Recover the amino acids of this structure.
């Protein structure tokens, strides 16, 4: 599917499309809530840690009539006081959610086969970095609290960096979440 085909699909989802979205994306439904953890970036060649920071992700399943049924806010906090907050609205089409914003373009879909419905695969590219692409795997634990994510960064078709992310769900109630202070993990 071309990007041009996907970009035209941002109408509000109602009725059968909403039911299909919820049924075909069980891993995404399990992601709803507030997650806190650590992002750790490693050089793929040396294995050296090159950066790390705390994180909070607010993962929302929006109302049925929203053109963006999934909406994620990422909050990053470094030990030196730096912060970075990013917004990722996504729409649903053809069994995937799709992003296209100022930072990234890409998709997420359930890993098949996964009999336990705990794994999601993502692929995205960064704007302005045409030779860079990334694959991510999100793995939910059966306890509904822990998850781990792995990013494989490819630049000019060579893996140059890996990101390991460990997170815990701190709330399922994202609608009531108001805390933007650094996580205490």
């Amino acid at each position: 599917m071309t990007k041009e085909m996907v970009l035209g699909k941002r109408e509000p989802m109602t009725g059968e499309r909403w039911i299909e979205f919820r049924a075909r994306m069980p891993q995404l439904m399990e992601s709803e809530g507030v997650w806190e953890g650590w992002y750790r970036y490693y050089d793929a060649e040396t294995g050296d840690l090159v950066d790390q920071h705390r994180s909070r992700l607010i993962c929302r399943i929006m109302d049925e009539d929203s053109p963006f049924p999934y909406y994620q806010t990422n909050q990053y906090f470094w030990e030196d006081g730096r912060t970075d907050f990013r917004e990722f609205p996504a729409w649903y089409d053809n069994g995937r959610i799709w992003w296209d914003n100022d930072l990234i373009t890409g998709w997420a879909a359930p890993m098949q086969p996964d009999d336990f419905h705990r794994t999601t695969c993502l692929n995205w590219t960064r704007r302005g970095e045409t030779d860079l692409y990334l694959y991510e795997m999100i793995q939910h634990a059966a306890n509904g609290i822990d998850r781990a994510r792995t990013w494989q960064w490819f630049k000019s078709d060579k893996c140059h960096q890996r990101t390991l992310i460990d997170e815990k769900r701190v709330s399922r109630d994202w609608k009531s979440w108001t805390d933007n202070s650094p996580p205490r993990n």
